[in-house]
Amino acid sequence: MTFSELNRVRWMTRLPVGAALALLATLPLPGHAHGTKAGTLQIDHPYAVPSEPNEPHGKVYLRGIKNNGAQADRLLGASTPVAAAVKLHSLKPDANGLRGMQLDAIELPPQATTLLRHTGDYQLSLINLKAPLKDGDRFALTLNFEHAGSQTVQVWVQTPRAAQASHASH
User: Which structural domains are found in the chain, ordered by start?
Assistant: First the structure.
């Protein structure tokens, strides 16, 4: 094989790799943020915190639900295969920390973001878990809205950053 033929073979074997690399460069990079849309609502980063092994309940949060519409909406409820029921709770401070009070709905005002964070005003309580929630697990959660209908999201089980930092300092 001559030097010219050898270079041609090298070029031909590199072409598919180069084409594959060019294709990969156009794909979005994976990240930790995740969310979805339901009508005019943007549902941002659904997550749950790990549960204790014998704890029958769990908690789901969202960074927020942004209502980009001109009309108010309401989160009426939710369901998931990992628990018998999902309850909506407001979180209010009391002498023992935050206390959850059950709600019939969570109001989603127009052109506003409603926070459902572990340090926020609301949470979704998972009642009678079928198995403990473990860091790294994922599960489906269907959210039911008054106007936007139903939307199923993937919930990631993760330890909140503040808790990770406090455990690392011990």
Answer: 35-160 (2.60.40.1890)
